[in-house]
Structure formats: C-alpha cells, structure tokens
TrEMBL record:
This is Amino acid ABC transporter membrane protein 2 (PAAT family). One of its GO terms (molecular function) is transmembrane transporter activity. It is a multi-pass membrane protein. GO terms for cellular component: ATP-binding cassette (ABC) transporter complex. It is found in: Cell inner membrane; Cell membrane. InterPro entries: AA_ABC_transptr_permease_3TM, ArtM/GltK/GlnP/TcyL/YhdX-like, MetI-like, MetI-like_sf. It comes from Kushneria indalinina DSM 14324.
C-alpha cells in the first residue's frame, strides 16, 4: 500500500512541482474565460442572423454550423496552428487554441441558440411589433430572454464540454494544466501530477455538472 501511495499519490512530488501545476491551471482558466464568451457571442450572432431570415445569408450560416460541428476540434487546432504559417501568418499556441475553439464552439452555440429562438411562437414577435418595437428590439427584449431560458441546460452542457476541450491545447505545446502535469511527470518520474490534474478538472467542473442536473430537472418538471 505504501508503494502504491508513493507512486500515484506522492504528496512530496506534488508540493515540489506545484508552482508549475498552478501556472498550468492559470492557462486553462484564461483559455476558458476567453473562449466561452467569444464562442457564445459568435453563436448568438449566427442565431440572430438566422432568425432575421436573410435568404442570401442562410446557406452560408448553415454551411458554417455544419462544417465546424462536423470538423474535429483537435484536427482544426492542428490545421490552424501548422497551416497559418503557409499563409504568411504565425500564430502563437495560445492564439491558435483561442481561434480554433472559438470557431468550433460558435457552431454549437449558434445551433443551440437558433433552436431556442425557433421555440418561441411567432405570435410573440407579432405582439411585440404591435407595441412599436422594431424587429431587433423585439428580439432583444422579448424573444431572446425566453429563448435563453428554454435552452439553458444545453448551453451549460456545451460550456462544460468547451472547458474540457481546453486540454487539447497540450498538442501545440501550450503549457495548460494537462501539459504541465505531463511535464512534471517527466521531471519527477511519477504519475502523481496526472492524478492531481484529473482531480483539479473534476473539482473545477463538478459545480457545472450539478448546475446542469438541476436545470434538466427543472425543465423536466415544467
């Protein structure tokens, strides 16, 4: 039992290399704080443009959503990071991760929000317009708040997956939490950092999981 603890739960190793792990956690949180709002904003733009029903624009929106939902985010990240220099653009690992995950998440957020807007009956828009509101004002003040409530569990679920996807940054050498744990593992010849990283991910995302469960129960009870 002692050798098992020393191998997989070595507190001394964790204490010695904790600053590296902490910096990795900082990168992970920074990615999440930037990518989630950007993806959500881009998704809202896509859903809004879809809602406005511009015939010439709809095929492009559908193509965007379908492409980035079908394209694996890991492949997209590698493609952007390694392909950009051929276009004369050199992206840092951090920028490549932000661009790739924002493009990918915008497709998912856009489809979720589009479904939310579509769930609101047309009578709501007509009633709002009859009070003198423009189409955009009706969308902002009347339709969008109701749509967001209808798809809140899906939005939380997608956000949860997006935060987990930040671990893909390790493939382009960005020292986020997973890569930092792997670096420390190589330095200490001990898997304890990987166990610690898994526990950190769990503690960081568990509140979102509980929130998602509560929202799903609330929607089911309506």
């Amino acid at each position: 039992m002692g050798s098992f603890t020393e191998m997989f739960f070595n507190l001394q190793t964790l204490i010695e290399y904790w600053p590296i792990m902490l910096r990795g956690l900082g990168w992970t949180l920074l990615l999440a704080v930037i990518i989630v709002p950007m993806g959500l904003a881009a998704g809202m733009l896509i859903a809004t443009l879809n809602f406005l029903r511009r015939r010439w624009l709809t095929p492009f929106l559908i193509a965007y959503v379908d492409f980035f939902r079908a394209f694996p985010p890991l492949v997209l990240l590698i493609f952007i990071y390694n392909g950009a220099p051929f276009l004369g653009v050199t992206l840092s690992p951090f920028t490549a991760v932000v661009v790739a995950l924002t493009l990918n998440s915008a497709g998912y957020y856009g489809e979720i929000l589009r479904a939310g807007l579509a769930s609101i009956g047309r009578g709501q828009m007509e009633a709002a317009r009859s009070t003198g509101l423009s189409r955009l004002q009706a969308l902002r003040f009347i339709i969008a708040p109701q749509a967001l409530r209808n798809v809140l569990p899906e939005l939380v679920s997608n956000t949860l997956e997006l935060v987990k996807a930040t671990s893909l940054a390790s493939v382009v050498t960005l020292p986020e939490l997973l890569r930092s744990a792997r670096i420390v593992q190589g330095m200490a010849y001990n898997p304890t950092p990987l166990i610690a990283a898994a526990l950190i991910y769990f503690l960081m995302l568990w509140p979102l999981v509980r929130l998602l469960s509560r929202l799903e129960r609330r929607v089911a009870s309506r």
